[in-house]
Each structure stands twice: as C-alpha cells, then as structure tokens.
Amino acid sequence: MNLTLKIWRQAGPDAKGSMETYPVSDISPDMSFLEMIDVLNDQLVRDGKDPVAFDHDCREGICGMCSMYINGEAHGPGRGVTTCQLHMRSFSDGETIYIEPWRAAAFPIIKDLVTDRGAFDRIIQAGGYVSVNTSGNTQDANALPIPKDNADKAFDAATCIGCGACVATCKNSSAMLFTSAKVSQLALLPQGEPEAARRVQRMVAQMDEEGFGNCTNTGACEVECPKGISLENIARMNREFLKAQFTSEK
Amino acid sequence: MTVLDSKIPQGPLKDKWTKHKNDIRLVNPANKRLIDIIVVGTGLAGASAAASFAEMGYNVKALCFQDSPRRAHSIAAQGGINAAKNYQNDGDSTHRLFYDTVKGGDYRSREGNVYRLAEVSANIIDQCVAQGVPFARDYGGLLDNRSFGGVLVSRTFYAKGQTGQQLLLGAYSALSRQISKGKIEMLNRHEMMELVTVDGKARGIIAKNLVTGEIEKHGAHAVVLCTGGYGNVFFLSTNAMGSNVSAAWKAHRKGAFFANPSFTQIHPTCIPVSGDHQSKLTLMSESLRNDGRIWVPKNIEDVKAIRDGSKKPVEIAEADRDYYLERRYPSFGNLVPRDVASRAAKERCDAGYGVNKTGEAVFLDFASAIMRYGKTEAHIQGLHNPSDAQVRELGEQVVRNKYGNLFQMYEKITDDNPYKTPMKIYPAVHYTMGGIWVDYNLQTTVPGLFAAGEANFSDHGANRLGASALMQGLADGYFVLPYTIGDYLADDIRTGAISTDTPEFEEAAKRVQTQLDAFVNNNGTKPVDDFHRRLGRIMWENCGMARNEKDLKQAIADIQALREEFYKDVRVPGSTKGFNPELDKAGRVADFLELGELMCLDALERRESCGGHFREEYQTPEGEALRDDENFTFVSAWEYTGKPSEAKLNKEELTYENIELKQRSYK
Fold first, then answer.
1. A151, B210, B492, B555: least CB-packed within 10 angstroms?
2. What is the rounded distance in angstroms from the CA atom of residue B644 to the CA atom of residue B597?
3. What is the mean pLDDT of residues B554-560?
4. pLDDT tens, residue by residue, B79-124
5. Does ipTM come in above 0.90?
C-alpha cells in the first residue's frame, strides 16, 4: 500500500504546530498502525530528519499509552480498539490519513502527538482507591461474598485503560466516562462503600479543577472507548454524587 | 571467589520466614521519617513496594519511564495469579505450591525463597480483594479459580484475561493514595541512568527527565529496582516496547551480580510472526490451554494443503490430527509447563508440520471445549435434544465469558475468527527467570540496593510456572521488602539526608551526559532499531529455544562485532535536550548489546539442559531436558569486570533439604 500521511508536528508545548505531509510506501495490510509509523520514522531518521514523537508501549491494547486521533476519530476507525490494535487493512491503497494528538485543554501537548495526561492520575489520587493498608492483615478473601452481577459490572468498569480517548472525542473534553468508571467500580463493591460519598465528591472536584468540560450526554465517549466502558457508569456516578451531596456532612 | 551468602534463615522450612520476621530489626516510626527510599519502576513489585514503604512512614521517590505508573507492563499479564487458598478443596496447600514451583523451575531455585512465596500467596488475594480488585466470582459470590500449566490443582485467581491489569490498578490505587498524602514523590517519564554508590553502599541514582532531557541527581538511603525483565534483548517479545534492562545493567556494572542470565522463558502460545515489519509479539494467555487443544496434522499432505489454502483446518478429520502434547504427556496433556510445550511445538515445526506459510505455527483448537460447554449449558437451560448449532452457540457464549478479550485480541491481529477456526500459535520470548542476584532479604551484592519482581532471579529457577509472576511481584512488594528493608535501614537512622553535592554524584552525572552527547554527535547512518533487530535475530537463533556450543560461540563473536558497529554507525537524531525517544532507545540498546553477550556466555558455561535452557548436546533419548545435578546445581552469579566477555562466574550452590531432585516428568 502507498499512503499519504498528514501529521500534526509541534516541537514543544509552547511552539506553534502545523500539519505536515509525508508519503509512505510498501505498507503491508498486516502491519499495525504504529508499525506503519515505525516505517515512517525509520525513513525520517535515515534522511536526517526529526522522527514523529508518539506515545506507545505495550502494543497490545492494554497499557493505554497510545493515543492518536486518526481521520477525526480517537484511535481511528474501528470500534473497541486502541491505535496499536488498528491494522492497515482498515485503510485502502492511496488513501490520505490525518493524524493528530488528543485535543483537550487538560491534556497539554508535549511534542507532536504526545500529550500530558497527568490530570487523570490526579483524579485517581483524589479518591480512586480503598483506604486499606497493604499489611495483608485483612479478612479472608471469601469472607464477604459479592453478587456475581456486581462483581462483573465492577470488573467491566475497572477495565478502563486511562487512554483518554473519551476526553479527546468529547466536544466538551469531558472526563466523565473516565472518572465514573473508577467511581462505579468501587461503588459496586462492598469494600468501596465506607468512602463512597467522600470519593465521588473529591474526584468530581478534581476533575473540574483540571479543566475538563461538562457532560452533555452525547455518548461519543462510549462509542470511541476501546474498552467499551458504558454510559451507565456516568449515570451511576451522577446518582452517587447526588446522594453524597444530600447525605454527607461536607 | 566471592562467597555468596544467600542468608537463608536456619530452622525448618515452614518456620524460616516467621522466625526471620521476628528476628530482624525494626525502625521506629519517628526515624522512618528521616529515611529516603528510591523505587525504580512501578509495575506490580514497584508500585506495591513503594506504597507499602510510604504507608510505613518512609519517604519514597518512585520513577517510571511511562507517562503514568498505571502503564507499567505488569498491566498486560493476562491469565491469573496463583495462591494456595485451596478454595476448590482439590488438595492444594502451601507445600504443594512450593513443590510445584520448585519442580516447575527444574530444581534450580532456592527452597527458602520459594517456600516463603507460597506461604504469603494466600494473603495476596485477601489484600487485593480488600483493595477492590474485581476477581472473577461464581454465582454464590465466591472467588472462582482455574488451572495453569504444570500443576494438577485449580489455584489460579483471575479477572477474565486481564488479571495483571486489575492487580496493577489495585497497586496503583495504593500508590496513588500515598502520592496524594505527599508520602511518595512520583516521577513519571523518568529513567534511571546510573546507580550511585558511596563507600560501597547504594546511595542514590542519576535519572533523566525524558520530557526535558534534564539529568537529575537523587540521593536516598536505599534503592529498590523493580524494573522488570530483559526479554526485549530478543527485539521481538511479548514485552512492551519500552521494557529494558538498563537500570539492572547499570547496577550490574556497579557491582550487582547478575544471576542465570540465560534462563529465558519462551511462552508456547503467542500469535506467530507475520512479517519483517513486526515490532512485537502478542501473547495468548496460558489459561487458554485449560480449554484449547494443541495439534498439527498427522499427514504431511494435509500440512501442505492447509498452507496453500486448499484445505481448512476444520476439514481435517479427528483421526488425522496429532494432538502431540496429549500423545507425549498423557497425564498433564495440554497443561504441561511452558518450556515443555514450547519445545514440543518447535519439534513438530522443525519436522515440517508447521501450519502457516512460514512453517512456524501450530493449532490451538477450542471446538471440543465449545461443544462440551454447550452441552452443559443446554442441560442447565433445560433444552432437550438441542441441535448442534444451538449447542455450539451456547458453548461459544461460555467461552466468550471466559476468554472474550483474548479471542477479540486474536481476531483483531490476525483477521481470523477463533470461535470458528482454530487459533494459530507459536512460542515467543515472554519472561526472564534470570536477573539481579539477591539474597533472602532481596538485597543485591551492593549493600542498600534491592531488587524485586522479575528484575531479580530468585524464585522461578530455570522455568517459571504460569500465574506465578504476578504472585512473586506482589509478594516481594507487599510482604517481603517491607520487612527486610527495615533490617538494613536500621543502621541509617542517624545518617541524615544523603547529599547529592558529592564527587560520586558529580562523576556519575558526568558519565551519563558524556554518553548521551556521544550518541547525538555520532555521525552514523542507521537508526537504533536496525541494530536492535539484528541483535534480536542473533539471540533468537542461537540463544533461544535450543542452544549449542558452536552457535553460542558464534553468537558471542557476532554480538561483539555488532556492538562495535553500533557505536560507530548508529544515528540518533535531535539533541540531548527535550523529548527524544530515539536517544532513550539508543541507551537501552547499548545495554542490551552487553547483556546479550553475557546471556550467551552463561548458556555456554551451563553444560546441561534445565527448564527453559535447552542445550542440544544434553538431552534424554526422548528429547527431554537432561540436567546434570552433580555439576550444575548452582546459581550462576556473574560479576562485571569491565567487559561482558571477561565477566567472572561466582556460584551459589543450591541445597535441597525438603525436595528430592528427580527428572521432571509430566508424562
């Protein structure tokens, strides 16, 4: 396959960026999207040019590091995939492909396609945990049965990889899907119960402070989420939040 | 020769850890506030250790090269975590887990360490559940289990095919809690470039801020390396692209012995290589061998027909299939340990029975499991005389619930639907049992430098059993280091903060800067990956699933030549300032180029076959690994002397008081 790539290049956080054009040739349909970028970078280095900076690590769709906005979609065409799981067979010979970084004020650009998603870490730090020490002096794991449905729903919410596609794809750059996934996981489990009110209040406050936008329920986040995190979680978080506002002392 | 003291406590095996915990010194809470610890890496071992240290009151700095600690490669572990809970009442116990692990490791691990691992395993599950880790449960709300290779019990806890993710996010949440309290300073996108020793003790590190390029000096009373394995020396492996040996190798160069470097795990069930462009390999969890049956055609004509597409695998009659693991190992069948399964696949493919174009693939087939589950499900739903199609559909649903994400992952990569046609799999580099030598306290040969998780060598001998890596990472971080590090730090309560304005730190920082400058100013022609791929090919062909003296010697010469060419001809764009991933890669590959040579040297010196280390010269008539217990029941601990080729071999003899050494049999 021969392709034309239009890629966002930006030297640093404060530099002015622009779309640059690169032709690539001899691309195999079996290559992953990132392997195609490897081919481009190999050529750029050999030509003495600056390779395209992009985030990637596990290349099997679980670390959440890769983050490209391809042809106007987070992680490109295809549902339930990260950029590294996107294969070139999804494109056709001669196509022009547009590649941009995640676009959100709360994810400042570091270089080219690399952004700073530290805001997500700070939201988790605000309360996305159970306050239990790691002493091992807890009760037996089976002492507290958890209904399978709840355990399964908690697991589904917990599969969030923190890639930020939900934010990138949202017209408001809202982080509701990400935040609600963690709130939901812990709200569905008895271990999360004692801190539920405090958790949801603090995490929502942090989310707002980071500069993420509001949720207007368009549902684009759910569509683009590589792990299929459900909008149900946002509804659950809203419920948890309301409940907390009425019942907690703060 | 340096005497390697493993510091295994005296006394009966089952009392060693308890006794040791009672004997070691404690640091009073007020004094813990005066002590700094650096943890490098935030995978299961690193995140759990850092969180535990901070909870105890120490001041912790943690580093990861990724943009968030949540992305460490533990996240990609799929199948599960072992624990001797015996919830299934199938005869499991601490002793059985200990025995299985030592046997699985082909009798090249330390009894004391392995027993401790088995002993604390049950507690890990309790801890994780308390953190809100959503393990799989049955309809009664209790935890579910499955089986893994090399054992005859169901002791593996899991969260679909994403167990590593769930455990790591649990540890990450504990870490995040301490970061929010200010007890941990988290340095994302930072890489350790050098270990700093003062008066022979580890007293800090030089790190690089990967965003700004700045070289930073960090002092501490102890340094803990939780930096994972070195499988990426093969270029193609199931490791993440960024996984590297550099922190461990820098420590090795500063005096930490490197143990059993040649013990590499080649995992039997990975998606085969599809072309030269390949950048990494993807694992299909071992848990699939619970239900998948591995086979190749019996007749070479069928192999040819499958390769040229004139026959589909489902068209091969049952009688014309060779379920070679079930044939060779009737008692363990498809659940033999990884090293055995990998070699058996290689044997069939070398004999010409590989089922894809490259001749390097075998089938992993779920058809019979789908029908079996379907029948049970039809029964549960009260369907009488269901059609085959109905049974298949019900069965596919059960399989989807168990392995859905893995099947999806397979289909995305290969464009084949594994519910309808068997998966194609082939062995790939997955894990490294070797690593930095540590004693019972997980302390290296450099005082004050500790190593945990895959980065150390201690628990898996010559072959790791499935679902034991997660167990070891969390055991080391949550339950071992928090005790043992205190014993060392008890001497440091009056030391005061470690100053970085000393010649030792200056010199180390200068050395780092010099190397970085050399890379960007090198007027070479080839990108870093060019050399990395070539190194990978040398390692895979000569130090992979089968090794022999002649090839290993050749490989050593080839690596030396490649290393020389690398320094002459590598091209690194950009500058040392700012974000420059190519420069970071160059440093990592430089270290792999030294490690690769040491691995070959270790494989050459170990004139026996054991576990993942298979020397063609040493095998039984049936082609099984032939150990030489008389001469090789030891840990090879290599000492750096300036050049990998001149590394000095130190031996830690292994003694077995509780287990009788036997030829491993899974027949």
1. B492
2. 6
3. 98
4. 899 999 999 999 999 999 999 999 999 999 999 999 999 999 999 9
5. yes
Q: Which amino acid is at B614?
A: F
* Close Cβ partners of B12 (under 8 Å, ≥ 6 residues apart): none
Q: Which residue of B has its CA nearest to A78?
A: B412
Look at the alpha carbons of B257, B263, B269, B270 in this order and tell me if their dihedral is positive or negative: positive
- Are B422 and B486 part of one and the same domain? no
Average pLDDT by consecutive 10-residue portion of chain A (250 residues)? 98 96 96 97 96 97 97 95 96 98 97 98 98 90 96 97 98 98 98 96 98 96 97 98 87
Both A165 and A243 in a single domain?
Answer: yes
Whether B348 is catalytic: no
Do residue B177 and residue A192 have CB atoms under 8 angstroms apart? no
Look at residues B429, B448, B481 and tell me which one is the last residue of a structural domain.
B429
> Last residue of some domain: B394, B414, B429?
B429
Question: Which chain B residue has the Cα nearest residue A206?
Answer: B180
CB of B666 within 8 Å of a chain A CB? The answer is: no
How far apart (Å, rounded) are the C-alpha atoms in residues B117 and B476?
A: 8
Domain coverage including residue B119: 13-263+433-492
- Characterize B624-636 residue by residue with b for buried, 16 or more Cβ atoms within 10 angstroms of its Cβ, and e for exposed: bbbbeeeebbbbb
Q: Is A114 on the interface with B (CB under 8 A)?
A: yes
Same domain, A62 and A102: yes
Q: Which of A110, A139, A165 is the last residue of a domain?
A: A110
**Domain span holding position A136:** 118-247
Q: Domain holding A73: CATH number?
A: 3.10.20.30
Q: Which of B71, B146, B321, B338 is catalytic?
A: B338
Q: What is the CATH number of the domain that holds B154?
A: 3.50.50.60
